[in-house]
Amino acid sequence: MRFAIQDSKRLADRLRWDDLDLSGFEERPLDNDALRCLLYMHDVEFHTACYLRDLLVSPAHVDPDLTSFLSIWAYEELWHGEAIAAVLAAHGESSGGGRVHAMRTNLGAADRIRPLVMLGGSWLAGDNLVALQMAWGAINEMTTQAGYALLGAKAANPLLSTLLKRIMVQEGRHLDFYASQADMRLARSAKARRLTRNALRWLWSPVGSKVMPSDETDFLTSYLFSDAQGIAATRRIDRRIDRLPGLDGLNLASRWFERLS
Ligand SMILES: [Fe+2]
Ligand SMILES: [Fe+2]
To answer: Which CATH number covers residue 60?
Structure first.
């Protein structure tokens, strides 16, 4: 099914949580493990603007449907970061601009040269790189949405669950758009399928893992994805990836998450 840009535009909105009384966390605070996951999610949601920087140096910037979607995506992810920042602030944790600035400042050379790497990839692969970007984006949205669902179940805090469900609705729409673009672009090009399959096979790692300390990525993935619910979610992600042209049998999520168990 094609998820059209008109659907993204019609449904675009900033996340709202003014009706939720976050002082409820004083009565029923989240435990340290849940807060550690939220700190990771906060940092990665806010990092979307930097992912956008890397995406737009490719031929993706030529396609007005993609630039419209990416504008909406970056805006909605910003408000996911803000919502999580509000939860962290309610627990006395550092969040927002100061934390984000410190994180970006410490990223180093690998982050600075990423736009050049993407530019080089664009010269070599042209439009086929966009197919890879769309498939990669779809997989990131799948794992993010699953991560929020698993965190909500583990934390068993109604206030957090309400907020996370609102975020997950938007992640689902991001997933639908990315997957629809990946499906179309992979279906029409054998080169795109080969590039995407090989790049995912050798380079993929969970979203945030290139910018967050590896201890934090390992903690989050093993905390959320190593029990029965997490393993079931992982298999669902892999089955969904299997449905994209040329990507069946990759077992990306299972291979990553089993590495930690
Ligand atoms: Fe998000
Ligand atoms: Fe998203």
So the answer is: 1.10.620
The number of folded domains in the chain is 1
Ligand lying nearest the CA atom of residue 41: 1
Neighbours of ion ligand 2 (CB under 5 A): 141, 171, 174
Is residue 207 domain-resident?
yes
Q: Which pLDDT score is estimated for 261?
A: 60
CB distance 16 to 163 below 8 Å: no
How high is the pLDDT of residue 2?
61
Q: Is residue 8 included in any domain, yes or no?
A: no
Instruction: Determine the structural domain holding residue 44 and report its residue range.
Output: 25-259
Going 76 to 82 to 84 to 87, the CA torsion angle's sign is negative
Say if pTM beats, i.e. exceeds, 0.85. Answer: yes
- Let me know if residue 1 belongs to a domain: no
Amino acid 4: pLDDT? 81
Distance 150 CA to ligand 1 centre (A): 15
Question: Which ligand lies nearest to the CA atom of residue 140 in the structure?
Answer: 2
Residue 130 burial by Cβ neighbours in a 10 Å radius (0-12, 13-18, 19+): buried
Q: pLDDT value at position 260? A: 66
Ligand 2 mean position to 159 CA, how many Å? 21
CA distances from 75 to 45, 48, 61, 71, 188 (A): 10, 9, 17, 6, 30
pLDDT in tens, 154-171: 999 999 999 999 999 999
Distance 170 CA to ligand 1 centre (A): 7
Q: Is residue 19 part of a domain?
A: no
Q: Which amino acid is at 76?
A: E
Ligand 1 centroid, distance to 145 Cα (angstroms): 8
Q: How far is the CA of 70 from the centre of ligand 1 (A)?
A: 13
Over the chain, what is the mean pLDDT? 94
Low-confidence ranges of the chain (pLDDT < 70): 1-3, 260-261
